[in-house]
Automatic annotation (TrEMBL):
Residues 17-111 form the Transposase InsH N-terminal domain. It comes from the Bacteria. It comes from Pseudomonas kuykendallii. This is IS5/IS1182 family transposase.
Length: 111
């Protein structure tokens, strides 16, 4: 089925599951089984403002940094490009196909 977008562009509706496209023996699957960041948001809640522009999820930032460390991606700009392009990285970072990857400058500001 084709849908009409407001800008006049057409988009194909699809069903795509990232889980199905990350090999069972992938390094990030092993790390994901051990990495529990469920308390991170609550632990850092006092550092985030309830007003203003929404902040980047701290779990996403940590997961992206783990990808960078594991794969030797030293540049924050390059890390954002790689997470944007690589399905396994997106899966590990809990990003869907249409989710935006944070801007590289976000990492510099948060360091």
């Amino acid at each position: 089925m084709m849908g009409q977008l407001p800008s006049g562009q057409q988009r194909l509706f699809y069903s795509f599951n990232l889980e199905d496209h990350v090999p069972p023996q992938h390094l990030l699957r092993s790390i994901d089984q051990c990495l529990d960041l469920s308390d991170l948001r609550a632990h850092l809640a006092d550092f985030y403002s309830a007003i203003g522009r929404p902040s980047i999820d701290p779990e996403l930032m940590v997961r992206m940094l783990v990808v960078g460390y594991c794969y030797g991606i030293r540049s924050e700009r390059r890390l954002c490009e790689e997470v944007h392009l690589n399905l396994a990285y997106r899966w590990f970072c809990r990003l869907g196909l249409e989710d935006e990857v944070p801007n590289h400058s976000t990492f510099s500001k948060n360091r």
